[in-house]
Specification:
By secondary structure, this protein is of the alpha/beta class. The chain has 2 domains: 146 residues, HAD superfamily/HAD-like (Rossmann fold); 55 residues, no CATH class. The protein is 39% helix and 15% strand. Helix 6 links the parallel strand 6 and strand 7.
């Protein structure tokens, strides 16, 4: 019999990203990062004059961060233990929106933090990539975890049978992210692993028994 499958995002679900990125751009580029709404592009301003950082420069800095600064990232509280607990009951893979050339670096990064999991890279909506993963694993059931509502909408459209958990473990941005559960695209919104783990276990176990 096939096992259940957990497909989890990485940044802000397993590892902090915005907090170390904020420190990086402040210390290395003289940029203040402050989110007051859900618009990431408006959160970055030069400390010297308050001018807004151009979108193309934001992308350049994000790429630099993932090229040279991933060592700054550290686990969300409870994430490592939860993922390892889930691995005893389900296959666990990571679906992260990074370029394919960063797959090995992300795999090593997670392993260094105690998460040994297969990593799938993706660009754009995650529904198609999730479908491909499910086609390969043919699980008894699937739980998808991500911090961004658009990915829950994509997965819900293409794979509605998948249980979807909206989880953002980064307090700097969690209050500003639209809730996929309220929008009807996720089955729950839980932002702490202490509460998320029993929710996930319930869904992989109850479906596994069907």
């Amino acid at each position: 019999m096939s096992r259940p499958l957990v497909i989890s995002d990485c940044d802000e679900v397993l590892l902090h990203m915005v907090a170390p990125f904020k420190d990086y751009v402040a210390h290395c580029h003289g940029i203040d990062f402050s989110m007051t709404d859900n618009d990431f592009a408006k959160a970055m301003r030069y400390a010297a004059d308050g001018s807004q950082v151009a979108p193309e420069e934001i992308w350049r800095l994000l790429n630099l961060f993932f090229d040279t600064e991933m060592y700054r990232q550290h686990p969300i509280i409870g994430a490592v233990g939860a993922i390892n607990a889930l691995s005893a009951h389900a296959d666990v893979v990571i679906l992260t929106n990074l370029g394919d050339d960063r797959r090995e670096a992300r795999t090593r990064q997670l392993a260094d933090h105690g998460i040994a999991a297969r990593v799938f890279t993706n660009q754009g909506p995650k529904g198609p990539a999730l479908q491909a993963i499910i086609a390969e694993y043919r699980p008894s059931r699937t739980v998808f975890i991500d911090d961004l509502p658009q990915h829950h909408a994509s997965v819900g459209d293409l794979a509605p049978a998948v249980r979807r958990l909206h989880l953002c473990g980064e307090p700097l941005i969690a209050p500003h992210i639209a809730c996929a559960h309220q929008a009807g695209h996720a089955h729950a919104r839980i932002d702490t692993w202490s509460e998320a783990l029993p929710w996930i276990m319930t869904h992989i176990e109850e479906l596994h028994d069907d």
